[in-house]
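Subject: sequence -> structure tokens, single chain

Hey, anyone have a minute? Need the predicted structure for the following. Not urgent.
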Amino acid sequence: MPKITYIDAAGTSRTVEAQLGATVMETAIRNGVPGIDAECGGACACATCHVYVDEEWRTATGEPAPMEEDMLDFASDVQPNSRLSCQIKVTPALDGLVVRTPNQQG
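Reply:
Had a minute. Here:
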């Protein structure tokens, strides 16, 4: 099972195992990772699962789709590596993925 590391705004790191086909957001929620609120439940209808993808993983996670880009307009402190974690599907290629959560969501 792929492992994902979540690093919160204070620098605390949590590495969890993810199910293939799940999203980075679903994995965080299932494992009690703080910093990802996921108010819309993964429907890409809010920005409360905003994460920063570490630079070395940007190519593997891909670019946001237009709908995701629209939702990122509602996120706080958007950066070039910002993504909505509900839109990143876990694949074997993402084993070792590192994402960071912002100081606040939405």
